[in-house]
Amino acid sequence: TQLLEQSPQFLSIQEGENLTVYCNSSSVFSSLQWYRQEPGEGPVLLVTVVTGGEVKKLKRLTFQFGDARKDSSLHITAAQPGDTGLYLCAGNNYGQNFVFGPGTRLSVLP
Amino acid sequence: NAGVMQNPRHLVRRRGQEARLRCSPMKGHSHVYWYRQLPEEGLKFMVYLQKENIIDESGMPKERFSAEFPKEGPSILRIQQVVRGDSAAYFCASSPLDRSTYGYTFGSGTRLTVV
């Protein structure tokens, strides 16, 4: 069974600060996704990474896929209250179901 | 331009009743996945369906739970004789391809409360 771990579990920061959250596994994934989930809503896909070492930017968010495709990080620059939410990583291998991590719950205080 | 539509958004059932959760995938998507989320936890895979076929139900409890995706109409997740432990948020997702490498589109979920 493939498992994903995420750290930290909770993170509370002030508006304008930078932060990084992590997603780790002992398994190799062919692709990895990051989702953000707001209270009362379903997860919304932010990005998909498929190549080891790949870096993708989405405005103030930077996503990196580890060289060995076992881990990923999400860095947010100058966090805003609108970034508050549960950040989930999910990985899959070809033909397999997505496995989700437990998430990092981010709170950005104004 | 509708996304994945789930209803009802909230469902309250007494122990022993049946719960029916509905999911209409995005237009053009023929692959549907059901996940369950407990408070403070990530999403746990339950079942993957295509039209009229269950492809993978490895995450679904063997008893009381069933799912279908008929040729016409929404996908249905059915829980018979609900118990308190079934209380959770149930999310449906869809994709245009088989277990798409590029991720899923999720609905807003159905929050089931068993009293």
Explain briefly what this protein structure is:
The complex is a heterodimer of chains A (110) and B (115). With 110 residues, chain A is mainly β.
The proportion of residues forming helix of chain A, as a percent range, comes to: under 10%
Quote the beta fraction of chain B: over 45%
What's the count of strands of chain A?
Answer: 11
The helix/strand series of chain B, from N terminus to C terminus, equals EEEEEEEEEEE
Residue-averaged pLDDT of chain A: 93
Distance between the termini of chain A: 40 Å
Terminus-to-terminus distance of chain B: 36 Å
Largest sheet of chain A: 6 strands, mixed
Outline of chain A:
globular
Tell me the number of helical segments of chain B per DSSP (H or I, 4 or more residues long). Answer: 0
Structural write-up:
The complex is a heterodimer of chains A (110) and B (115). In chain A, strand 4 (31-37) and strand 5 (44-49) form a beta hairpin. Helices cover 0% and strands 53% of the residues of chain A. In chain A, the strands form 2 sheets. In chain A, strands 2, 4, 5, 9, 10 and 11 form a 6-stranded mixed β-sheet that branches. In chain A, strands 1-3-8-7-6 form a 5-stranded antiparallel β-sheet, with no helix packed on it. By secondary structure, chain A is mainly beta. Chain A has strands at residues 5-7, 10-14, 19-24, 31-37, 44-49, 55-58, 61-65, 71-76, 85-92, 99-100, 104-109. The mean pLDDT of chain A is 93. The radius of gyration of chain A is 13 Å and the shape is globular. By secondary structure, chain B is mostly beta strands. Chain B contains no helices and 11 strands. The N and C termini of chain B lie far apart (36 Å). In chain B, a hairpin with a 2-residue loop joins strand 5 and strand 6 (53-56). Helix content of chain B is 0%, strand content 49%. In chain B, strands 2, 4, 5, 6, 9, 10 and 11 form a 7-stranded mixed β-sheet that branches. Chain B has strands at 5-7, 10-13, 19-24, 31-37, 43-50, 53-56, 65-68, 75-79, 88-95, 105-106, 110-114. The model of chain B has no long low-confidence stretch (mean pLDDT 92). Chain B is globular. The A-B interface holds A 4, 30-31, 33, 35, 40-45, 48, 50, 88, 90, 92, 94-103 and B 4, 6, 33, 35, 40-45, 48, 56, 58-59, 91, 93, 98-99, 101-109.
